Amino acid sequence: MIEVVFLICLALIWILFAVLQDLKTKEVSNWLNFSLIVFALGFRFFWSLFSESANGFAFFYQGLIGFGIFLVLGNLFYYGRLFGGGDAKLMIALGAILPFSEEFLINVKIFGLFLILFLFVGAGYGLCWSLVLAIKNYKSFRKEFYKLWHRKKVFTLLFIFIGILLMCFYFIDSLFLVLGIFIFIMPYFYLFAKAIENCCMLVEIPVNKLREGDWLAENVKIKKGEVVKQDWEGISNKEISLIQKKFKKVKIKQGIVYVPVFLISFLILIYLWFTKFYFLF
Fold first, then answer.
1. How far apart are alpha carbons 17 and 22 in whole angstroms?
2. Structural domain boundaries of the chain?
3. What is the pLDDT of residues 40-95, one digit of tens each?
4. CB 35 within 8 A of CB 89
5. ∠ CA(73), CA(75), CA(81), 5° rounding?
6. Best exposed site among 61, 79, 105, 240 by fewest CB in 10 Å?
7. In terms of pTM, does the model score above 0.85?
8. Tell me, which fold does domain 203-253 have in CATH?
9. CA-to-CA distance for 123 and 100, rounded, in angstroms?
């Protein structure tokens, strides 16, 4: 149990640093994520080497397996455009931490529980953050929301009509009511999220403050035939140099500071681990 407590403390220290860095700079350094992987797997190796456990190197092997599984998940989230690079690498690093047990099936339960927690905490956190932004920028948000409403009026009314139509069949099956409500409110969520993005997350900054990985709000034309394109992976240092030679300011898209979701989810997981809640799965 001492080895698990050490891994938990190690992860908490690193995640706290990542939260502070994300709040300050809107990014998480590669060295922070990679060092967590090195320290976690290094500790697992030396603990297994000097431990008198009957399972030998199982503690180390489970760490490697967890790292491999979360390496796949992190890349899926990144290339599926759900995560930025720093968030994906932090998820991968936690893969070396989360196998608390020397038994694979127990670790699978822990992985599943963490991902479920992450999903629900992330949804609640994202909604709260968006509401704060909407309230803070109420006038511009309201203006943008109504502009999008008129622009997407046909699309929105179509979904509302389909939703109401499905709700009318609730007497056949209650599933129609649930599906109808979901379709009815879906366009409002879309318009809300799009309005937040357009009025609260697009900012114009001096080009000397551009950093590698920043997301351009739109393509930037340098000269005829040469364009720095808006890309999910963000701009490179070479592209920053090109932009700085041509422009004084440029518009970028800022994402939500998402690392606190890792901290909250991990803290809940620790509580559930020590209360043996994972056995209910």
1. 9
2. 2-124+257-280, 133-200, 203-253
3. 999 989 888 877 665 678 888 999 999 999 999 888 888 776 777 788 899 999 99
4. no
5. 105
6. 105
7. no
8. Molybdopterin biosynthesis moea protein, domain 2 (3.90.105)
9. 26
- Edge-to-edge strand ranges of the sheet holding 202-206: 202-206, 249-253, 215-216
C-alpha 114, offset from chain centre: 13
Block residue for tokens 């620790």? 270
Please answer whether residues 65 and 107 qualify as being in contact, where contact means their C-beta atoms are separated by less than 8 angstroms.
Answer: yes
Higher pLDDT: 159 or 231? It is 159
Calpha distance 146→154 (Å, rounded) = 14
Q: Which tokens belong to 204? A: 């114009």
Residue carrying the six token digits 């670790």:
107
> Which amino acid appears at position 126 of this protein?
G
**Residue found under tokens 């891994």:** 7
Residue 62, Cβ density class (10 Å: 0-12 exposed, 13-18 middle, ≥19 buried): buried
